[in-house]
Amino acid sequence: MLIIGKKIGMSQLFNQDGVVTPVTLIEAGPCYVLQQKNKEKDGYEAIQIGFEKITKERKMKKSAKGKEYKYIKEERIKTGGEQHKAGDKIDVSVFKEGDTVKISGASKGKGFQGSVKKWGFAGKSKTHGVKHEQRTVGSVGCRFPQRVIPGKKMPGRMGGGRITVKNLKIVEIDKDNNLLVVKGAVPGRKGTLLEIRK
Questions:
Q1: For residue range 159-188, what is the model confidence (pLDDT) as tens digits?
Q2: Under CATH, to which class is 1-29+92-110+153-198 assigned?
Q3: CB–CB of 5/25 below 8 Å?
Q4: For the chain, how far is it from start to end, CA to CA, in angstroms?
Q5: Taking the CB of residue 70, how many other CB atoms lie within 10 A of it?
Q6: Which of 7, 49, 52, 165 could be cross-linked to 70 through a Cys-Cys bond (beta carbons 3.0 to 4.6 Å apart)?
Q7: Which pTM does this prediction carry?
Q8: CA–CA distances in Å: residue 93 to residues 54, 57, 103, 197
Q9: How far apart (Å, rounded) are the C-alpha atoms in residues 142 and 190?
Q10: Comparing C-alpha atoms, which of 114, 110, 116 is closest to residue 158?
Q11: 29 and 13 in contact (C-beta within 8 Å)?
Q12: How far apart are CA 161 and CA 158, in angstroms?
């Protein structure tokens, strides 16, 4: 089961013994089923769900005209699996405390970074003759073949990729405010769109 949500931020929970648990607050749903796809008509089985209804008129592309929801996702389902009708509501009530979930989202973009930050290279020794060279990559080629081998770890864009974190435990559920409290960290900054799977 898929539900779409947004990362609110991180916090801490203390138990009776004073042991602290780092948690992430997620605004999960409510999502609405927009379409149930089937094998006969579409060639595969899936459900299409929408999140965050557009309330006011805003400037949008022609291709987006007529769409009621800001975010639309599609989730494949097993043949002959759970059937959904257009308009069905999916909210945090599909989960219960103690469930483990898999959460996917885009990690924080760090921009163009050097090899020390991106790959954890040690850098050169801070001795005489190493002016402005401590954090450089160093030699990248080899004697044979006389070229740089593909896949060499070099400076470049860091972050901003899709990350999936598995086996995250749900600590608390607030059904009134559509909140999930999950143990540990999830990808992205505050406001990152997340896909939560049971």
A1: 999 999 999 999 999 888 999 999 999 999
A2: mainly beta
A3: no
A4: 6
A5: 16
A6: 52
A7: 0.78
A8: 23, 31, 17, 13
A9: 44
A10: 110
A11: no
A12: 8
